[in-house]
């Protein structure tokens, strides 16, 4: 398993290029010359005809680098390299979750980062020290070491670490996803992150449980309004409220037509927040395809705002309202707007206090819809009457390929009703599978 450079040379950097790298930024980060870090490594690699290095070469070089920096080689790193599958110089994952990475341990990793590209580098809860974190992030940028980086649960990162991360986000041409969850994104961290996002190439950003409510969200949204690269934004568990926070999110949808996924689960947006989001959605002619609003204290009153917006939506394909208190009343409010909507493919309504009455209303929607592919009704009390209505609707509907509904508890059924339930659920499954097969055949034509 090898990595070769495009020029046919081995991946060991020459001293001039390394010196240029150290002068590139005004940071005092120590990157020792390559011939010192990998003593004897260049000579061994250069002696081969194919000018390539193997994973065993990288392991040996890492062990020598650890010796130079007077740290013990991490057994988890050695095991991952030994078990790694390398193709074209890429390895699936460098998992350092929970490892305590001090400055010297980070410096010792340079030979690994410059020799291999990783699909995912996991630094979650790595207890990164200030100097070590900034050095490590500088290395990841310089060698373009990964496409997906997770720095979640690193609460001790200071100013220089966030500055290095911002530079990585701004400059990297390879990094496409960043997770920075369970950290405190206020003041300098959110300011530096937001400034970097103005010109970032990131495609996905996960900032769950990052205390982003209030001024922090304002700072982030102000940058994202003009961002034309980000496709996914995940902001669950940030205590986002239905007033100032929701207004900021509504503005984001008005000014940003690039974002395709917005995940806002486990916040407190409530009905007023949904109104602001609907206002933003109604102004989009392209953009958001996935909106996740699970567990946001939304009630049947919020469905009035959604009912006004649904008929005009042309882009939104996935809407998840699970774990909200919609009830049968809320479903009745959106039943006809759902029939008119011409974009929705997946509707999530798990744990929304729906009973047979709500299921019958949804069955009427299914009978009219030619688009809906998935409907999730798990953790609702849908009994035989609701199942029968859904089953009858599927005799007409030709698009639904998945209907999630829980079995009725056995203690609520006698032997005859148990058999009836089994028959109805089998019929629902059979018709959904038939629709899925037909849709697959149409895609393959």
Automatic annotation (TrEMBL):
Keywords of the record: Leucine-rich repeat, Repeat
Protein name per Swiss-Prot or TrEMBL: Protein phosphatase 1 regulatory subunit 37
Keyword Repeat: yes
Family: Belongs to the PPP1R37 family.
Region called Disordered, residue ranges: 1-33
Compositionally biased spans, kind Basic residues: 19-28
SMART domains: LRR_RI (SM00368)
């Amino acid at each position: 398993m090898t990595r070769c450079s495009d020029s046919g040379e081995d991946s060991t950097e020459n001293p001039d290029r390394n010196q240029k790298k150290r002068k590139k930024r005004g940071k005092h980060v120590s990157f020792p010359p390559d011939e010192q870090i990998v003593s004897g490594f260049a000579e061994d690699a250069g002696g081969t005809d194919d000018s390539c290095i193997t994973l065993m070469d990288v392991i040996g070089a890492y062990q020598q680098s650890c010796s130079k920096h007077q740290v013990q080689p991490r057994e988890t790193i050695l095991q991952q390299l030994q078990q790694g599958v390398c193709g074209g110089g890429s390895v699936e994952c460098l998992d350092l979750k929970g490892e305590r990475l001090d400055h010297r341990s980070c410096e010792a990793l340079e030979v690994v980062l410059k020799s291999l590209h990783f699909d995912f580098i996991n630094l979650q809860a790595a207890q990164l020290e200030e100097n070590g974190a900034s050095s490590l992030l500088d290395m990841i940028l310089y060698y373009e070491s990964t496409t997906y980086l997770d720095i979640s649960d690193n609460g001790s990162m200071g100013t220089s670490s966030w500055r290095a991360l911002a530079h990585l986000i701004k400059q990297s041409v390879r990094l496409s996803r960043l997770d920075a969850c369970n950290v405190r994104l206020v003041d300098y961290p959110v300011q530096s992150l937001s400034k970097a996002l103005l010109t970032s190439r990131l495609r996905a950003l996960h900032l769950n449980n990052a205390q982003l409510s209030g001024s922090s969200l304002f700072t982030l949204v102000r940058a994202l309004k003009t961002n034309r690269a980000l496709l996914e934004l995940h902001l669950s568990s940030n205590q986002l409220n239905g007033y100032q926070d929701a207004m900021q999110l509504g503005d984001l949808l008005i000014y940003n037509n690039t974002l395709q996924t917005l995940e806002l689960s486990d916040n407190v947006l409530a009905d007023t927040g949904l109104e602001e989001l609907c206002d933003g959605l109604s102004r989009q002619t392209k953009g958001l395809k996935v909106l996740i609003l699970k567990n946001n204290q939304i009630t049947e009153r919020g469905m009035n705002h959604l009912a006004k917006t649904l008929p005009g939506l042309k882009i939104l394909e996935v809407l998840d309202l699970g774990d909200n208190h919609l009830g049968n009343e809320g479903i009745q409010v959106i039943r006809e707007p759902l029939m008119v909507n011409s974009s929705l493919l997946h509707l999530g309504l798990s744990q929304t206090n729906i009973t047979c009455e709500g299921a019958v209303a949804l069955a009427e929607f299914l009978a009219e819809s030619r688009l809906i592919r998935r409907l999730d009704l798990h953790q609702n009390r849908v009994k035989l009457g609701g199942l029968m209505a859904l089953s009858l609707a599927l005799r007409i509907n030709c698009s639904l390929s998945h209907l999630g509904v829980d079995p009725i508890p056995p203690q609520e059924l006698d032997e005859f009703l148990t058999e009836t339930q089994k028959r109805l659920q089998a019929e629902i499954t059979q018709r959904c599978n038939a629709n899925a097969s037909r849709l697959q055949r149409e895609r393959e034509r």
